[in-house]
């Protein structure tokens, strides 16, 4: 036991400088360091690589420093509702119920788009598989059990499919990626819409759960017959195979940032003037639209009490929606359609500064 | 102090005044010492109590809404606002039990070998290596499990258990074997708690008096008989204490288990089937939980985990008490 204690101690000492560094950088309240940080935000992990590039570039350009904690969309919404951050970020829009619990009306600003890729591990098949929404729904409810099922075979004429069992892999942690995927399945399958429905975590009828994109991808990679969904950026950066999905126009499209932007453009073209931008763009119309796409949002209060912070926040968002968008593609995010980013920049003027109501 | 006291003559040294003075000083020291240690001793249970209270308060909305069905129901549906934690409770208990079943004999074997059989030069390095297992971070165990243990379980181990040993006919090893399973979680937990059990057990075995061993040998016992009849019974309560320590670790372990158990909230008799644990459930869902009821339900899972750990520990203490009482008779 003494020796064990020594080992534990040694490891503790070895780790501690690192931990304390992390501790101070993430745990120190923003207020204490107001000298160095101008704005604080928290939320979604999905857009974090892009956001951190934005914040770095913006700080270099203007000197305004933004501290963002990628603690997950749920955490972002909670922190915004409690007023502990200046803005939140989420991969799924806040529900009316969630907004009603916040300290005032919340505005949703879409920033970029992401797509969800369906990845699989069928070693016998070298061609890219084609799938439709209803077939995906049947696979994920466990109705289609084998890869050589007639429904898959008719979509993939000429491909020799093995008789291996299908193993569904889904996210075990709550995730915006799951929300987008189940939102899509709900829009193409009435039975899916009833149960399990859409959400950041749903009661999956079959399959294994993996934590994070890497957990899902890892389980699929190791299991012949596996199928699951991951963010497009993750699938591309790790060279995962992905399926072509039939869109609303009947075309089979590969997930791509261009496909996501096309989906957003087709939805944006038909927007009412008073939209609150809590939009679902799954299964959007348009020949090039990739059907499993979604916005990610930055959430801000409509009524801003602190005028200095509010101005900085609005200036940043204006920069992000204009100059920031051009950086999206290089990091595998899809930029907003140009018309939409113009509309959103105009919408920034609706943020009210000052405490008067 | 020593110089001054050395200069005192023997008569002064033994004078009533000096002795009274030093006793008085000692009493103050004693009192301060008593006060400080008592404060510390009170602080820990107080902390435990505060944690229990705050978790229960946070969990109350879910606990009061679902009552007993929270721990008996299997449906966990965030969208529908239905929360039943039975599969997670089951998974926590079963994965820990599997871990104990595997780890206990291994840890006992290692400790007995190191304390009784191994030559002196081997004790230090082997003991150190076993202890080192405790220093590996949980996530590294998880990665090792994903890349080494899971493929092994899927190919030679799973088919060996179910087909070669014909255990596939028993419910315990039936059904498809994907590798990600209760068994994988149990095995990884076993490796993780092994150093804790063996470290305690080894020290306890080393603390058995020589006379105990010599007496057994003098009665004509072989080395094995000496270990079995004289050393282990003497160290029994300590060994059980080590096992409890390991069990406590297994119940709360999160990261490695989450990576290997398959995260499926279902109760299945088969160890090949994926499962879920309470710690994994909290780790998976807490960061994205937004509705008050969902957060409260996760807190309730925390409260149940807390209670389960307490109950298991209390049961184990009771076991130790019974064993020691029985051995004294």
Please provide a written account of the structure:
The complex is a heterodimer of chains A (357) and B (329). With 357 residues, chain A is an alpha/beta fold. Chain A has helices at 2-27, 48-62, 73-82, 96-101, 133-141, 150-155, 176-188, 190-194, 212-222, 232-237, 257-268, 307-322, 338-347, and strands at 39-43, 66-69, 87-90, 106-120, 130-131, 167-171, 208-210, 226-231, 244-246, 252-253, 293-301, 303-304, 334-335, 352-353. Chain A has two domains: 2-112 and 295-353, Periplasmic binding protein-like II (D-Maltodextrin-Binding Protein, domain 2, 3-Layer(aba) Sandwich), CATH 3.40.190.10; 116-259, Periplasmic binding protein-like II (D-Maltodextrin-Binding Protein, domain 2, 3-Layer(aba) Sandwich). In chain A, strand 9 (244-246) and strand 10 (252-253) form a beta hairpin. The termini of chain A are far apart. With 329 residues, chain B is mainly alpha-helical. Chain B has a single domain, classed as MetI-like fold. Chain B is built from 13 helices and two strands, in the order ααααββααααααααα. Chain B has helices spanning 2-7, 10-13, 16-66, 69-72, 86-117, 120-132, 138-164, 182-206, 210-218, 223-252, 255-260, 278-285, 292-328, and strands at residues 76-77, 82-83. In chain B, helix 5 (86-117) runs parallel beside helix 8 (182-206). Chain B is flat, with a radius of gyration of 26 Å. The two termini of chain B are 51 Å apart. The model of chain B has no long low-confidence stretch (mean pLDDT 88). The interface between A and B is large, with 43 and 43 residues.
